[in-house]
Amino acid sequence: MERDRETKKGRSPKPYERPRGGPARQVADLVPQIGRAAFRRFGFVQSSVVTRWPEIVGPQHAKICSPEAIRFPPGEKSEGILQLVVLPAHAPLIQHVIPEIMERVNRFFGYNAVSRVKLRQGVVQPPRDESAPKAPPSLKPIPMELGDSLRDIGDPELRTVLESLARSIGAKEERQK
């Protein structure tokens, strides 16, 4: 009732303000922030060690081993122990390249973060394939003979659906040639 009286007295209603939170962001941008607490709980100061493991040790080693945790002495952030999970058949190989892995991890951190490596045999999740993703269908060209007739359609939603159909028809024709 109070609001009705205020608007009747001559005050204009409060203008609409967008809720807080800022613009929409990609999930990939949010994951490091969200996962940071979980990574720290399990011994990772930087989650990027896990996410960039193939870059740090190379794709060959990333297929057969992955970081599990980095444990530092109390109160310090250097001279830590890197715990790796290794496929059982490859443990002897990784044992021979431990100095190289330590050097690469320390180079990644920029200081002597790791002084020992501890191996545990187990299942290793293969790294994600980061090959170039296919272009979304909206970026593929529409065949010329089909595209001219679609320009006259006023409804944008209908036009988008028909353009998608035209692209798929054009792609099928290209495969048949």
Number of strands: 3
Query: What does the average pLDDT come to?
Result: 77
Structural class: alpha+beta
Number of helices, counting only DSSP H or I runs of 4 residues or more: 9
Unreliably modeled segments? none
Oligomeric state: single chain
Brief digest:
A hairpin with an 8-residue loop joins strand 1 (65-71) and strand 2. The termini are far apart. With 177 residues, this protein is an alpha+beta fold.
Name a few traits of the molecule.
3 strands; 177 residues; 47% helix; 9 helices; 12% strand; single chain; 3-stranded mixed β-sheet; flat; alpha+beta
What does this structure look like?
This protein is of the alpha+beta class. The protein contains nine helices and three strands; from the N terminus they run αααααββααβαα. A three-stranded mixed sheet has the order 1-2-3. It is flat, with a radius of gyration of 28 Å.
